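[RESIDUES AND BACKBONE]
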Amino acid sequence: MSTIKNIYKENIDFAALALQDTAFAKALKSNGQLDFSNPESVQQLTKALLKRDFGLRISLPPDRLCPPVPNRLNYLLWIQGLLDTTSDNYADTCDLEREVLGLDIGTGASCIYPMLGCAQRPKWRFIGTDIDEKSMEFARKNVLQNQLQNRIKLLQTQKSDTLLPLDKIGFENIDFSMCNPPFYESKADMLTSAAIKQRPPFTACTGSESEMVTVGGEVVFVSRMITESLALKDRVRWYTSMLGKFSSVSVLIEQLREHKVDNYAVTEFVQGGKTKRWGIAWSFEDLRPRMELARNVNSIPKALLPFPSEYHISIESNDVSTVGQHVNTILSQLPLKWMWRPAISTGIGFSDKAIWSRASRRLHVKQETEERMDEDEDDPAFGFKIYVEGAIEPVVLNRVTVRWMKGHDSVIFESFCGMVKRKLDDMQD
């Protein structure tokens, strides 16, 4: 797999999988269904999917978590999207040649995230950590039997160690961290959760206590990551974590906002209409992901979501190229860095400040402004992409989208979008 694609959007066809994997076929009931209350059956499903869809083979002990592949893939695809849409080349696409280094906190016996990541992206490497000796033993075995020892390094840590041990692992910078933290505050909390879901406790859940329970639950665990990230800052491009409780999402967003972290993303992972998990990510850099990756939780107050990074302008015109010419004319007259590609009706630009607010008084010094910007072009304060799409709606034949790609100041982005809209409206009058 080389692009962001969830191959498990539809329910898994057990009959088709059974024809391809005899061990899984033996795990099916006589009616062709899988007994999800049987840990051995669930293990066979995980093994069969990893083998068929990713060419991976794993060994799992009976007393450690057996990871559901679709759920784990959802999380990994989201991280891929965050990285793909915040790359230094501003391409917004998958680059298979991009070298990426990730940290999997609590990699578990399966070591599933590093192995899935390596199976999808040929230039990705991982460090996996875990405090559990038995889990590390099996993780090493899984890495070796898939011949990934040159791309996945494992480090056993202690409870007293930092969650993000960059200095200990010997890396100054990494591209992302990921974690599936223990959800529950106590064993009683875990049993209560199982009762609410109206299923027997521990159904198909073979996780050890260290995998399932931590003091304070996942909120305290991820809060530790936030605290550590405040010291590490941009040594990690994207800090991420999966969450098992919806109530945790708002609490952690509030923490990020209290620390003035403005570049963050939240999402929800839904699999088969039943299992739901959430994801949270934050960055101290100023490269901003696409909006569908950053604001993909509908059930929390909009005020807690990150600032919208896309603005749409409806244009009543039946000619994409004409609208594109208007956009290019508007931006070309401003003292900023701007490049328009008419073949794909897309342009990208950069500026140090909101120069458009006084552009009419400064056109005569445009040359001087550009010379000053040359000194700072490696790190402009504001970056954007504009693209024109045709036939969006029956009445609105074109839509101009302004995407915020770089920067921390949402006021500049709002001001820029307002300026573009006003000038496009003027051209239609």
In short: The CA atoms of residues 158 and 165 lie 11 Å apart.
